[in-house]
Design goal:
heterodimer; A: about 280 residues; alpha/beta; Glutaconate Coenzyme A-transferase; 2 domains; 8-stranded mixed β-sheet; 11 helices; 11 strands; B: about 260 residues; 6-stranded mixed β-sheet; 3-stranded antiparallel β-sheet; 8 helices; 13 strands; globular
């Protein structure tokens, strides 16, 4: 018998408090926990530090004034290479940033997950990553080679938010696309871990949908689970649904003016998840 | 099928194929439309030993066409992002990336233009450029060769150039290697004694003066610069029928 860790979207959003570091799973505009992000946009939380292989999650949170700092290696909508709201936030100086290489980002999460202060890597040497983030340090190998390497610090998260295709009420999660991204590491790097899923199923039904290795999120990694059908919309969540490119274009257009944003926000963000889904589903 | 004389895009594809032709059994990882066409052209013709992806998380052994929904794939491996970092850090990869700015040492930027605190133009971010360039052979594809892209100094260094690699010393910089820079006008390399960018060949119909005028720093130019080769009939057939049947390369680099 598995425990029952089911919670609501709003209960998850209420776990995020001012100043917290929040890790968000997925990659670019792919399998993002957008229902949770939208709920977070509707709370009063502010001054957040967002850690993400960034997509519209970062753009929405920046545009709704939630963000103090973004830790990222890129922020992209994939089919639209540059995230428009993030661009505006950056270019107006509205958010501070820690800009990392994609692999350094992985090592920071891994270090936090393994409870070590840093992991050594060659990545970053020679580039301006070190100049942009003066807090980064190098370390000399204690062995005979004496090689100097970057000491990528642990990226500790207060809260991790991820989206999976299937989950059970105990908080086990399964992905059904080809890439797990770094969602398991996000959870293991975090103090509080929440997962939205397309569908909550009986534990015994996981293997009908995919092989054992697709059950990437075990319940040691999660504190709460919520069923949010279509909850990654408008990002890609194949095989359940592709990216909604038309909606993504509309989202991008909402960055053109304050009026355009106000209209988008009133129609899609301020309304709650149920009304959002009614508005976007054909 | 398209016919007629080779287009500029097809010359670029052949030049890109040549970048990967002698790599051996490594992961050839071209990023962008013409890089993918050129990379797959190399695997289809002279370098079947190259390991390549479907553009996402699978390794595939057949030549997958661009611009076709649900193409057949002969899957020979699972290569999600986490595995890709294993490949990058183990050194068995040659990546071809884009560049918003590049300088004479091959320092590359596609993160932002202007200052870090409030950039004039926010671009992609560092992506994987620091890790790619310090670990593996890296080449660049620049579809619009202009003085905006070829600059005296980049605003921020994402991909590491030869001057910085040299400053790191022989140990930390030992895996750094820049291959080629292919543009809509020419092919460049770093095969000079001090690894400064050199004009390797100009595409048919392009003059050396045109390249010089479109470059914001002094290129190394030695004697009579060769003309980039034309694709063979076999290569044209691969490009037009199998690799790029809808002509996406022609959209990226229109024929002059």
């Amino acid at each position: 018998m598995v425990p029952d860790k089911r919670v609501t979207v709003d209960e998850i959003a209420a776990e995020v408090h001012d100043g917290m570091t929040v890790g968000i799973g997925g990659w670019g505009s792919r399998r993002k926990p957008m229902a949770l992000v939208r709920a977070l946009c509707r709370t009063s939380a502010k001054d957040l530090r967002i850690v993400s292989y960034g997509g519209p999650d970062v753009g929405l949170l920046c545009r709704t004034g939630k963000v103090r700092e973004v830790v990222y290696a890129f922020v992209s909508l994939d089919s639209i290479p540059l995230e428009p709201h993030f661009r505006n936030a950056r270019q107006s100086g509205a958010v501070t940033t820690m800009e990392l290489d994609e692999g350094m980002f992985l090592l920071g999460l891994q270090a936090a997950a393994w409870r070590v202060p840093f992991l050594p890597t060659r990545v970053g040497l020679g580039s301006d990553v070190m100049r942009l983030s003066p807090s980064l340090r190098t370390i000399r190998s204690p062995y005979d080679d004496g090689e100097e390497l970057v000491a990528m610090p642990a990226l500790h998260l207060d809260v991790a938010l991820i989206h999976m295709h299937r989950g059970d009420r105990g908080g086990t999660g399964q992905y059904l696309n080809v890439d797990p991204y770094f969602d398991d590491l996000m959870c293991m790097a975090a103090t509080r871990r929440f997962m939205s899923v397309e569908r909550i199923v009986d534990t015994a039904d996981f293997l009908a949908a995919g092989p054992p290795q697709s059950i990437r999120i075990n319940r040691l990694m999660t504190d709460g689970v919520v069923e949010t059908p279509h909850g990654a919309h408008f990002t890609e969540c194949i095989p359940d649904y592709p990216r909604d490119e038309a909606f993504q274009r509309a989202y991008t257009a909402s960055a053109k003016s304050d009026d355009a944003w106000d209209e988008f926000r009133a129609r899609y963000i301020d309304v709650g998840e149920a009304d959002y889904q009614r508005a976007v589903r054909p | 099928m398209r016919d007629g004389a080779p287009t500029r895009a097809e010359v670029c594809a052949a030049a890109i194929a040549d970048c990967f032709a002698h790599d051996g059994e490594i992961l050839a990882n071209p990023i962008g439309t013409l890089p993918v066409i050129g990379g797959r052209l190399a695997k289809a013709t002279v370098a079947p030993e190259l390991v390549m992806t479907d553009g996402e998380a699978l390794l595939v052994e057949n030549i997958v066409p661009l611009g076709v929904d649900n193409p057949d794939k002969v899957v020979a491996g699972w290569n999600p992002y986490r595995t890709m970092f294993d490949v990058v850090w183990s050194g068995r990869r040659h990546v071809m990336m884009g560049a918003s700015q590049i300088d004479k040492w091959g320092n590359q930027n596609f993160a932002f233009i202007g200052s870090y605190d409030a950039p004039r133009t926010q671009l992609l971010g560092m992506r994987g450029a620091p890790g790619n360039t310090i670990n593996d052979t890296t080449s660049y594809w620049i579809p619009a060769h202009t003085t905006r892209a070829f600059v005296p100094a980049v605003d921020v260094v994402c991909g590491v150039g030869y001057d910085r690699a040299r400053d790191l010393g022989p140990v930390a910089g030992r895996f750094h290697h820049l291959g080629y820079v292919v543009t809509n006008l020419c092919v460049l390399d770093f095969e000079t004694p001090e690894n400064r960018m050199r004009l390797r060949s100009v595409h048919p119909g392009v003059t050396v003066d045109e390249v010089v005028a479109a470059t914001g720093f002094e290129l190394a130019i030695e004697g009579n610069v060769p003309v980039s080769r034309l694709p063979t009939d076999d290569e044209l057939q691969w490009i037009r029928e199998r690799i790029d049947p809808t002509g996406l390369g022609e959209e990226e680099v229109p024929n002059p």
